[in-house]
Amino acid sequence: MLLYKMIDKAIALLPPVRKCRRKGSQKLYDNNEAFRREVNLILALAFGEEYLKDSTFAEQIEPILDYFEDSYVGRPYGGKRRKRRFANVKWNVIKLVLSDEPRTSNSIESFNGQLVRTIAASHPTIWKSIEALRNEFAISEQKVSAKWGGEKTPQRGITYRNLDARLKNTISRFEEIPVID
After folding, report:
1. Measured between alpha carbons, how far is residue 169 from residues 38, 46, 160, 164, 172 in Å?
2. Which top-rank group of organisms is this from (predicted)?
3. Could you say which of 51, 72, 92 is where a domain stops?
4. Average pLDDT, the chain
5. Angle subtended at Cα 178 by Cα 15 and Cα 25, rounded to the nearest 5 degrees
6. Which one-letter DSSP state was computed for residue 65?
């Protein structure tokens, strides 16, 4: 159930979903459990195999599906599919989940934030930027040396570890889950 709550929050942030909400789909999403589940299943594409099977979807979610089809699947055209905006290898996270790798770029964002705080200037000189990069590189080397030396690294929170376990379990049972037409 936590996964569905997280998906509900994540889907609210997607620009096409916000656009559809303005067009009146918000009430349908809030009041219709079946419709909400179908919308949430769209996000499950990120955890599917690298090939996508043709499916039919409910008419009410057509604006959302149009966006996802153009961006992530590719529209049918003359017996083929048009080129999608984003290739599967860029957005599909199944391999990351199975290999216990992060599914997001949060660590990169964290590093960028730390670098901005280290520089402490909105338009630093090239020399100040180089010095900040040297300092960050030295800190990174210390962290790597400590890890290789056997020092314990901070663990992720229990909520995220539980979510990772549930996602891995869902992916391992992928073939057992019935196809929804």
Report:
1. 21, 15, 14, 9, 5
2. Eukaryota
3. 92
4. 75
5. 25
6. H
Which ranges of the chain would DSSP assign to H, the alpha helix?
Answer: 2-12, 15-20, 26-31, 33-43, 62-68, 88-91, 94-98, 106-119, 126-148, 158-172
Among the listed residues 3, 13, 75, the one whose alpha carbon sits nearest the alpha carbon of residue 44: 3
User: Rounded to an integer, what distance in angstroms lies between the CA atom of residue 6 and that of residue 11?
Assistant: 9
Q: State which of 15-19, 94-98, 171-175 shows the largest mean pLDDT.
A: 94-98
- Domain holding 75, by residue range, is 2-92
CA 89 to chain centre: 12
Same domain, 86 and 9: yes
Same domain, yes or no: 49 and 86: yes
85 and 70 in contact (C-beta within 8 Å)?
yes
Distance (Å, rounded) from C-alpha 124 to C-alpha 46? 39
- Would the CA dihedral through 106, 109, 113, 115 be positive or negative? positive
Which pLDDT belongs to residue 134?
92
Does 99 reside within a domain? Answer: no
- The residue behind tokens 């996964």 is 3
Give 123-167 pLDDT, tens digit per residue: 889 999 899 899 988 988 998 898 888 888 778 889 988 888 888
